[in-house]
Design a protein that fits this description.
The complex is a heterodimer of chains A (about 400) and B (about 170).
Chain A lengths: L8 H4 L5 H7 L3 H11 L11 H10 L6 E6 L8 H8 L1 H15 L3 E6 L7 H13 L16 E6 L9 H8 L23 E5 H13 L1 H5 L9 E8 L5 E6 L4 H8 L6 E4 L5 E4 L17 E5 L5 H15 L5 H19 L4 H17 L3 H5 L1 H10 L1 H4 L3
Parallel strand pairs in A: 1-2, 1-4, 2-3, 5-9
Antiparallel strand pairs in A: 5-6, 7-8, 7-9
Helix pairs in contact in A: 2-6, 2-9, 3-4, 3-6, 6-9, 12-13, 13-14
Chain B lengths: L5 H15 L7 H12 L4 H11 L3 H10 L11 E6 L2 H5 L2 H12 L12 E6 L11 E3 L2 E3 L4 H27 L1
Parallel strand pairs in B: 1-2
Antiparallel strand pairs in B: 1-3, 3-4
Helix pairs in contact in B: 1-2, 1-3, 2-3, 3-4, 6-7
The chains are: A alpha/beta (about 400), B alpha+beta (about 170).
The structure holds flavin mononucleotide, iron/sulfur cluster and FE2/S2 (inorganic) cluster.
FE2/S2 (inorganic) cluster binds next to helix 5 of chain B.
Chain lengths: ~400, ~170
């Protein structure tokens, strides 16, 4: 397996605007058909098929449409979108332009997390260059019916704004509180207009696929998880960084590559993901097995797994927007339980009760934050019983 | 040239941002971010001005300011230092860096130095987990921190602070 810890080999080798040129030679429905054929699924975590989302937005009625690139990247342990934006911003903007052509959008927004403000100037420069080269603006590629431009809007330090409806609230000048769905953004998005929200990496793959074809893309990966994916690797390993692997790669293969063969546990998917013990390192990183937005945090033999659980729960207590009770109260309760476990004063019965609470959180929370915040806790008490019980 | 009061300057700057968004509410975040970065806070006065320009109630503006961790109404230091406390940085000895920051500044996390130069805060994952511990000084990122590097970072701030102050004075005299 050839790999580098310095980002995507594929993205760096992309020929400039090859994908856009090819898209401009196609009809709108043919662009979506190519993306559909590629089986590209969202790289932001949820894994929703990109072409399905685009089809809905293309069919939705609206006097304007928007393409939003989600660069909020707040999931603990994730930094691959930052590397893509630093090294291959053109490819991301190219992907946004292709998306705009496909759904008939005239406006694009890059929502950049406040923590990445230092990237803004270079991104504005890339946008300016693209305007100079008529790759943004009026009548792109000489197509009289294709006007599209992109602006950058900054976040201000709120993890929940990565959730697409909270992101839209934030763009509209509101508190970043997730909305009830339906309606979905593809129908009623930014300012009520049909809006496609895609992850940074998803849009970069869009540009690659348009340039090289769906068949090229599908040559790597598995049947259900086409293509490669970027992984942000940190924690106890020799070579942390951003890696590109075909989907379906096993955790063990990845650990070997990053120099962490002695790992005792791996957190896949960040704070909202799951913590897996060595006995499960044979599992595959793919939508059909362990799905992830690409955050991989490695824990060496001497790490206290309850310290990890506490750290994640502190994160959720702080980042919950507080709109719904299961999430607002639940995460706090889970943190309390971890403290009890650490002190060795948590009964089996109480733990059972807390399990019930986790289920309510997963079912009754309004957005993905509260729905997935019990994951790490549950996987830690299930997979590391020996370590966490009877302290 | 005429001396323009600071409040008038602020109003003019805000007007420019609001107009870029047709004076619609979607101008709110960019307006708040501009005030925050120039003044390290968003005062009651600034919130009222913004509310008037966008024709919304000041309570709405308050609500938004209080939601985002990078926006604040109470005064903070010219340099806001945010140290990441999320797991990967935590495992890379962020506590030692934290202690050094507290020792060198003579304040605890959540506090501002008496001279109004520095505020010390915790933050969540900054997206530099492979090169932690990481911290932000305003918009600037510092990675692979050690207790030793803390001193250099603070010195760098102190030397640009003088510069800031001088530039501001110059600007006011134009
Ligand atoms: C709490 C929360 C935070 C999220 N943060 C991000 C994020 O930072 N970046 C991202 O692309 N998607 C994030 N998502 C997922 C988005 O809601 C959305 O599904 C995604 O941007 C769609 O893009 P994709 O289909 O290209 O993956 C988050 C979801 C939740 C519930
Ligand atoms: S689940 Fe949590 S973050 Fe999501 S809306 Fe409810 S309180 Fe807010
Ligand atoms: S954990 Fe500190 S930067 Fe991600």
């Amino acid at each position: 397996m050839k790999s580098s810890h310095e980002g995507s080999v594929t993205f760096k080798s992309a020929e400039a605007d090859f994908g856009l040129t090819s898209a401009l030679g196609k009809s709108r429905s043919d662009i979506i058909a190519e993306i559909s054929k590629s089986n590209l699924k969202g790289r932001g975590g949820a894994g929703f098929p990109t072409a399905v989302k685009w089809n809905l937005a293309a069919a939705a009625k609206g006097e304007r449409k928007y393409v939003v690139c989600n660069a909020d990247e707040g999931e603990p342990g994730t930094f691959k979108d930052k590397v893509i934006l630093a090294d291959c911003a053109d490819l991301v903007f190219e992907g946004m332009t292709i998306a705009a052509r496909a759904i008939g959008a005239s406006h694009g927004i890059l929502y950049l997390r406040g923590e990445y403000a230092y990237l803004r100037r270079s991104l504005e420069d890339v946008l300016a260059r693209r305007r100079d080269r008529k790759l943004l603006g009026k009548a792109i590629g000489g197509k009289g019916d294709f006007d599209f431009d992109i602006e950058i809007v900054m976040g201000s330090g709120a993890y929940v704004c990565g959730e697409e409806t909270a992101l839209i609230e934030s763009l509209e000048g509101n508190r970043g509180e997730p909305r009830n769905r339906p309606p979905f953004p593809v129908d009623t998005g930014y300012m009520g207009y049909p809006t496609v929200v895609n992850n940074v990496e998803t849009l970069a793959w869009v540009a690659m696929i348009m340039g090289k074809g769906a068949d090229w893309f599908k040559k790597t990966g598995t049947e259900k998880s086409a293509g490669s994916k970027l992984f942000s690797v940190s924690g106890d390993c020799e070579r942390p960084g951003v890696y590109e692997f075909p989907l379906g790669v096993s955790i063990a293969e990845l650990l070997k590559e990053v120099g962490a063969e002695d790992a005792k546990a791996v957190q896949v998917g960040g704070a909202s993901g799951v913590c897996l013990p060595a006995s499960q390192f044979g599992r595959k990183l793919a939508y059909e097995d362990v799905a992830t937005g690409g955050s991989i945090i490695v824990f060496g033999p001497n790490r206290d797994i309850l310290e990890v659980a506490a750290n994640f729960l502190e994160f959720f207590v702080e980042e919950s927007c507080g709109q719904c009770t299961p999430c607002r109260i639940g995460n706090y309760k889970l943190l309390e339980t971890v403290d009890m476990l650490r002190k060795g004063c948590c009964s089996m019965n109480y733990l059972k009760e807390i399990r019930g609470l986790c289920e309510s959180m997963q079912l009754a929370s309004k957005c993905g934050l509260g729905q997935s915040s019990p994951n790490a806790f549950l996987s830690i008490i299930d997979n590391f019983k020996d370590e966490v019980m009877g302290r | 040239m005429m001396l323009i009061p600071e409040n008038e300057v602020l109003k003019q700057e805000l007007k420019g941002v609001a107009e870029r968004y047709d004076n619609k509410r979607s101008a709110l975040m960019p307006m708040l971010q501009m005030v925050q970065s120039r003044h390290s806070r968003i005062s009651e006065f600034a919130m009222q001005v913004i509310a008037d320009m966008l024709d919304i109630h000041p309570v709405e503006v308050h609500g938004v300011v209080s939601f985002y961790s990078f926006l604040n109404s109470e005064p903070k230091g010219r340099f806001i230092i945010r140290l990441c406390r999320t797991i990967s940085c935590s495992m890379q000895n962020k506590d030692r860096v934290a202690r050094q920051l507290e020792n060198d500044l003579g304040i605890e996390f959540g506090q501002t130095t008496g001279d109004g130069k520095f505020t010390l805060e915790w933050t969540n994952c900054l997206g530099h987990c492979d090169e932690g511990p990481a911290l932000l000084v305003n918009d600037k990122i510092h990675v692979k921190l050690t207790p030793e590097k803390v001193h250099d970072i603070l010195e760098e701030c102190r030397s640009t602070f003088g510069l800031h102050a001088a530039q501001k004075k110059e600007g006011g005299n134009h």
